[in-house]
Amino acid sequence: MNKITLVDGKPSVPERPVIPFIEGDGVGAEITPAAQAVIDAAVEKSYGGKRKIEWKEVLAGEKAFRRTGSWLPEETMDAFREYLVGIKGPLTTPVGGGIRSLNVALRQELDLYVCLRPVRWYKGVVSPVKEPQKVNMHIFRENTEDIYAGIEWRQGTPEARKVLDFLRNEMGVKKIRFPETSSFGVKPVSVEGTERLVRAAIEYALERGLPSVTLVHKGNIMKFTEGGFKLWGYGLAEREFGDRTFTMMQYDRIRQEAGAESADRALEEAKQAGKLIVKDVIADAFLQNTLLIPEEYSVIATLNLNGDYISDQLAAMVGGIGIAPGANINYRTGHAIFEATHGTAPNIAGKNIVNPSSLLLSGVMMLDYLGWHEAAKAIEKAMEKTFADHAATIDLARFMDDAVSLSTTEFRDRLINNL
Ligand code: NAD
């Protein structure tokens, strides 16, 4: 009844959806109720009681371990599987053998192949760049492949020896500089993995009328993995979205056949016609360009490791490293977990000073995902107003002029008042 389901590839949301949440360790006990209070108030205000989220707490992390002896009980996995959409606070990474990172476990179990990070600036928030308002990007980071897949062998082990022998004797590899003391890692990048990520990025851009999708890669050096990502990404754009996109591969073909002027004209016509421009850039040049011409970029599609660096740099550029939201999504099954991107902040836990914005903005992404755009917009506006008034928790307030420094609960109340 109150379950979100997937209908024709889109979440179908009842008026009172059950949404499982993990409170989170450390500051989780403070940010989760604060974020929920603001989300509930925004939903109430936007839909006058017609819609309401039925929060369902599920356990993970320290709280789960204390109560059940398991860090990630099976019921928690089952709830995320069953209810499709969930939200989570930060979790301690348990130290000691044999316990996987809980975040990685959730991502892998549900095959959440997109890590989505929207990055925008809020007026009033102090940034290290001159024109942070020009940064407005949506990063689609591939979440399941790449050197991040964790296929590695430590130097000096029999396994590393075996890999070395295989590479030398069967693959004819001669380029390993210090073979006897090397660790080895494998970087799988597939056609399927690339296509589902790039498809999600293009659909997202088209739905929102955004101007471009940029494939960010190191294909100049890693030709078959990162270079493959670029080629397969362009291929998919032309094959599945040919009538609504114009790719820079098309541009190059026209330039070769008919000259630069014709190619420029075709690009201009495509822009006039409102087509989505699909382009690519080498990762190092991209990082430089984000500082010089950030306005040239909108949706970014990239591999796992590049995406890790890019997410943090862009968040830092808008002064938002502590407030950046994120989500891990499988657009095919509809499974999505929205999350705070910071850790458990044990040094400030229990002091009522933590900033709940990262989790709250993840909640905004969640509302958008549900199609409850009015409530999402209301929270964003309330946040804009609060920061523009130079009111914030201490982590941001300490950098603002004439700042009003608020506790977590005061900040929550201020946001609710500003809805
Ligand atoms: P952290 O993000 O918890 O803290 C880094 C610094 O930022 C600290 O000084 C902290 O006080 C501050 N900070 C973080 N979030 C804040 C907020 N919302 N408001 C104000 N200040 C904030 O990173 P850490 O110390 O490296 O990690 C602590 C624990 O969190 C570890 O167990 C780690 O594994 C875990 N962790 C979990 C996640 C996750 O669940 N997604 C992510 C990162 C780290």
Description:
The mean pLDDT is 94. This protein starts with a strand and ends with a helix. It is built from 15 helices and 17 strands. The strands form four sheets. It has an eleven-stranded mixed sheet with strand order 4-3-5-15-14-6-7-13-10-12-11, with helices on both faces. The protein has a two-stranded antiparallel sheet with strand order 1-2. Strands 8-9 form a two-stranded antiparallel ribbon. Helices cover 44% and strands 17% of the residues. By secondary structure, it is α/β, with parallel strands linked by helices. Strand 3, helix 1 and strand 4 form a beta-alpha-beta unit. Helix 1 crosses helix 12 and helix 13 crosses helix 15. The structure holds nicotinamide-adenine-dinucleotide. The site of nicotinamide-adenine-dinucleotide has 17 residues, from loops.
Present as ligands are:
nicotinamide-adenine-dinucleotide
Q: Return the structural class.
A: alpha/beta
Biggest sheet overview: 11 strands, mixed
Distance between the termini: 30 Å
Radius of gyration: 23 Å
What proportion strand? 15-25%
List the helices and strands and how they pair.
Blueprint: E1 5-7, E2 10-12, E3 18-22, H1 28-47, E4 54-57, H2 62-68, H3 74-83, E5 85-88, H4 102-109, E6 114-120, E7 136-142, E8 152-153, H5 158-170, E9 184-185, H6 191-208, E10 212-217, H7 226-241, E11 245-247, H8 248-258, H9 260-272, E12 276-282, H10 283-292, E13 299-302, H11 304-317, E14 325-329, E15 336-340, H12 357-370, H13 373-388, E16 391-393, H14 394-397, E17 404-406, H15 408-417
Parallel strand pairs: 3-4, 3-5, 5-15, 7-13, 10-12, 10-13, 11-12, 16-17
Antiparallel strand pairs: 1-2, 6-7, 6-14, 8-9, 14-15
Helix pairs in contact: 1-12, 1-13, 1-15, 6-7, 8-9, 10-11, 12-13, 13-15
This protein binds nicotinamide-adenine-dinucleotide (NAD).
